[in-house]
Design goal:
This protein has helices at residues 4-10, 18-27, 35-47, 53-59, 101-104, and strands at 14-16, 64-65, 70-75, 80-87, 92-100. It has 112 residues and is α+β, with helices and mostly antiparallel strands. The protein has a 5-stranded mixed sheet. The chain starts with a helix and ends in an 8-residue tail after the last helix. The model is unreliable at 1-10 (pLDDT under 50).
């Protein structure tokens, strides 16, 4: 049995907010296929220990690192994209955008 304090160490990155992912999937029935890939991305990210952009790139080679702590993740074979802002010292990630690849093409990932 794993003590509670050991379990707390498993989650290194705090993601704000899971509700953003759930809201996206629930927005349109055609996004239902995004549920499992987004949850897999969420679980992987939550267990990560990213102190620098290089750490992100090491763990997720397909991630695009932008300036000022922004990163873009391809989900479900690049069908969907997640844009985040990462506060590396505090290990906090803020989800700024979730959408299809086509929707991503209409935004400025650096300012959203």
């Amino acid at each position: 049995m794993v003590p509670v304090w050991d379990y707390d160490r498993i989650t290194n990155v705090r993601i704000i907010a899971l509700s953003t992912l759930k809201s996206f999937v629930g927005r349109n029935p055609s996004y239902a296929d995004a549920h499992e890939p987004l949850m897999a991305w969420y679980r992987q990210t939550r267990r990560a220990d990213w102190a620098t952009p290089a750490d992100v790139k090491r763990d997720v080679r397909s991630a695009s690192i932008l300036k000022d702590g922004r990163a873009v993740f391809n989900v479900a074979g690049n069908k969907y994209r997640v844009v985040v802002w990462i506060n590396y010292p505090y290990r906090v990630m803020y989800i700024r955008f979730v959408g299809t690849h086509r929707q991503y093409d209409t935004i400025d990932a650096q300012t959203i």
